[in-house]
# Entry
Amino acid sequence: FCGGGDSWGGGKGGGSRPPPQGLPDDYVVNPAAVYTGKVETYYKFQGYGFVVPEQTGVIPNDKVFVFWKNIKSTDRYPSLLKDMDVQFSLVVVEKRGVKTLQAENVCAVGGGAISVQASFDEKKTFVGGQSLRYTGTFKFFLPKQGYGYIKIDPGFQYDKEGVPEEIRVESAEMNCGGGNPQYCEDVKVEFGIWQTTRGAFKGYNVTLPGGASLPQMVAPEPA
# Structure
């Protein structure tokens, strides 16, 4: 079973959203304009952040809100890094009755897709290698808390000692085809296993059997 049972958004990353900044009455957005800037902050497990444009004075308050759905990314869990250079366009949205700006088509400078997770994957120590897949069943996954546990199917042999029968998996390793994961319970999955520097074993790139993406949470954009 996947879906329901929990609200969208992770419990990590922190940061309560400030009230939206209203636009001046005479401000006009050019939807064809493309801007560059730096990521001021991004709350990975909340799915939003802010970008500061390279040129000051071109947009009110000199920063703009970005939501995870508007990131062009090859990552299984789209996110941005602080001080990352990005390219984006602007759109006017209404939040809490206030017209404000939001970044759209957020990508690497030059238009390429953003890829953050590959650099982190290179630093991981994998059980049996990065491409080896195991199977098991979700005991549960809680989107709001940002983690769950998989019971590994019996019969696997490992190249490392101490792999438990149940392993933890976190939001960033839930492959929902670029979306956020739903609540899951008693769902068959496949995955890799990696070992942290402290010796804990965790799930990697969790998918449905055969590599299909897990169901996405249907998420309203932050108000």
Q: What stands out?
A: Residues 5-15 have pLDDT under 50 and may be disordered. The chain has one helix and eleven strands. The CA atoms of residues 141 and 169 lie 8 Å apart.
